[in-house]
Amino acid sequence: MIRFLFVDLAFFIAEKESPGGLFKSYLCLMLFADVAAPESIKSRLTELAGNGRVAHALLFFGQDGGAQLPTAVAFARYLFCGNRGTQDSCGTCASCLKVNKLAHPDLHWVFPIALSKDVRKSDDVISEFREAFLEFPYLGLNDWFNSLDAENKQPVIGKDEANEIIRKLNYTSYEGRGKIMIIWMPEKMNHEASNKLLKILEEPPDETFFFLVSSAIEQLLPTILSRVQMIQVHNANVSEVAKVVAKNFQLNQQQAEHVAATAQGNIKQAFLLADDNVSGNIYLDLYRNFMRNALRFDPFKITGWIDEIQGLGREKQKQFLIYALQMFRNSILIKHIPQQITGSPEERDFLQKFHPYITTQNHEALTEEFGKASYHIERNANSKIVFMDLALKTNELLNKK
What are the phi and psi torsion angles at 301 (to 5°)? Predict the structure, then answer.
């Protein structure tokens, strides 16, 4: 069982496979220090809190699966913290521990749901949302609906939800530090829900804050955009991602930098790679065997390799293809500027032996073919067909004179 290093108080480790299936343990990323967002954004938020200038409605926005949701939660935790510092929450007070579990009584949640007879509002599936978020806070909409087994249903925030928001926010704060309503994916509000919230967004009850967290602000009504202060959460750079990976996994800084570079700064890809790196780099073995078998094109070994990777699931299949792209890059670097290569001794050893087969003549075509394969896997193409086709094309490119 993979273990994670929690930097704030570790309130639990789940020794079971999680519903979403991405990781084998739950993560706890609620401190600013643990969020893979630009430091400038974190500093801006703590400065606003320190000066007492937090707007009553903030809109955190970025790409789907970006850092805007954990950033919003870290800021909520910072505002609730009873012993916060100038840069971060204390991590140990009663409020911090409640936010750890998404169980703070003054932190309210709204998110897209698949409407049914039994599910009319977010509270009906709040336990499932907590599990999904605590497993991996950089949630995308597909991740959330996959965890519900509702991939083919329409995500929506409806009028019943809007009525519930108004009802909850009219209550008095439990702990006297105000109330925070996080609305994740407000672009999924239907027209009726959006209109119902306009008045309370403009004039919320005292000590009430709205945190809207979006990945498609162009879909929001102009009347909503006019009522919020916008905070764009850009993607973290590779070094910022490496810092977070090193802090949350049992990896040294060099390993974390290699993981972040391989993932090209994508935090979800970096965490998936780091998850496997803890127990040994399965992607090196997959890459080594694939390239050797594709070079000679042994159909029996290729078929066996395809059966192996099919059993790992689509997330790891995509990780393998990303890993291969980084290995192609390192194969070119080793010929000209080897000091820029990151990786384990085992990876360097294989590169020394295999890099002559990756040339300036076939590098671009290999990169294109592996990119196409990733595109098709992402869209649920038959993985056996995708990887057999990739093996045939790789054989042709590796042997091209």
Answer: -70, -35
